[in-house]
Design brief:
This protein has helices spanning 14-20, 91-96, 119-134, and strands at residues 2-7, 26-29, 42-47, 53-60, 65-66, 75-90, 113-116. By secondary structure, the protein is α+β, with helices and mostly antiparallel strands. The protein has a single domain (2-134), classed as Roll (ph1033 like fold), CATH 3.10.590.10. Strands 1, 2, 3, 4, 5, 6 and 7 form a 7-stranded mixed β-sheet that branches. A hairpin with an 8-residue loop joins strand 5 (65-66) and strand 6 (75-90). It is globular and about 40 Å long. The mean pLDDT is 89.
């Protein structure tokens, strides 16, 4: 399954993680869809806010687990950042697409995890990002 995980840069700076330590094992809050998320699911990482943009593509590395004391929520999954999107896909670029403009996170919907059920959304993201992703692998095999 494909997902969009989003973060508020005022609460967590994904861009800095990508720049300083993209190979680190990170966890991500799972506040929606925790019964659907599985290891190896692909994740598109979206930063919200005034400069909203798609920054990376990665995958889920663990089953959902409980954690104590996190300000981001009780449940989480491990994630790996596989590709940096260069340049990032901005909100105006995403919403200019006749297909992507239908996906609510790109129009400002709030939430942490969004399942991408529509294969047209995935195909459009793959088509837009293909060239950039081939040149921006974060974790070398």
């Amino acid at each position: 399954m494909d997902w969009l995980f989003q973060c508020n840069p005022k609460r967590w700076d994904l861009e800095s993680v990508i720049e300083t330590d993209p190979a680190s094992r990170n966890d991500w809050a799972v506040n929606q869809g925790r019964k659907l998320i599985s290891p190896d699911d692909r994740v598109f990482f979206w930063q919200t806010g005034r400069d909203a943009r798609l920054l990376a593509v990665g995958h889920v590395t663990s089953p959902v687990f409980e954690r104590d004391g996190s300000p981001f929520g009780r449940y989480a999954v491990g994630v790996a950042l596989d590709y940096k999107i260069v340049p990032p896909l901005t909100r105006p670029e995403a919403t200019a697409s006749e297909i992507l403009c239908e996906f609510v996170p790109f129009t400002g919907a709030q939430g942490t995890n969004f399942a991408i059920h529509d294969p047209r959304i995935v195909s459009e993201l793959e088509a837009i990002l293909k060239t950039d992703l081939l040149q921006s692998r974060l974790n070398k095999p």
